[in-house]
Amino acid sequence: MARNNRLFYYLLLLFSTIFWGVSFIFTKSLLETITPIAIIFFRLLIASTLLMVVTGLFYRPKWSEITVNDFINLFALSCFEPFLYFLFETYSLQYADPTVVSVIIATIPVFTLFLSIFYFKENLTRLNIIGVFISVLGIVVMLFPDVSGELFHGLGVFLAACAVLSSVGYSFFIRKVSEKYHPVFIVTCQNTIGGVLFLPLFLLLHNPAEMAHQWSAFAQPHLCVNLLVLAVCCSSLAFIFYVKALQKVGLGRSQTFTNLIPVVTAIFSYFALDEKFTVHKIAGTLIVIIGVYCVQKKFTNPADMVGVGE
Hints:
Layout (H helix, E strand, L loop, with lengths): L2 H28 L5 H23 L9 H28 L2 H8 L2 H11 L7 H18 L10 H24 L5 H22 L3 H8 L5 H29 L1 H6 L4 H12 L6 H18 L14
Helix pairs in contact: 1-10, 1-12, 2-8, 2-10, 3-7, 3-8, 4-6, 4-7, 5-7, 6-13, 8-10
């Protein structure tokens, strides 16, 4: 891949990371009025509606070409993420401290790394592999002052671990379908199926009065804007950019970019929420960036390679 082309796909990954990183800030403001399940359902509803229009106009595949196996893969990736991943992550935060959950979530690229090497046979060097662990270490350094023994709760840790496995499951199926379909079509299916799966929960967890209160959010401009940002940028564009980059860069290198999400969140929280940017956060940020850089570094020496190319 030419250097300029590689830079383009890394920029797509960077924008995905930025969108996902700022999503926490917009979600935090919405949680004062809307429940977590309602936020997820609304952003998927908006995203799927917009994407179905775009897909129907520009990226509609020939339905005869979609096999039963393809549909199963699309359904499976949607079950893993957004459905299971959001459920496990949301409820893990009710039992474990967000700092602990963040550290556990940061291990996703480690498990995805083994998937990309041993199942998909992607070519990665020893430095790339070391870089994944360095990026995880950076997040631990960022969060270390806030981690203590009393913050750990067995159920919360278990649910966070399930969120990690859900993300790895998503990576497995997205890697399969990304070879055949356009990213816009894939993300349209992902958000539509995810929204359908969340609908029963949305109906069951809210009584009529609560449901009316949730829908009233659309009458408040600032809440409506936040939902639109989450739907368009975080649930749509971020995933489209990610899948597009994954098609060219590979699963292992793409997934490691997600460890920049806490860095983006910390930077934007500093400006938007007046949160402190401590020495630990600065040091951790630098370590994460070094780790991500190492994962993207390519060498031509075959002796350095760990995976075997397809």
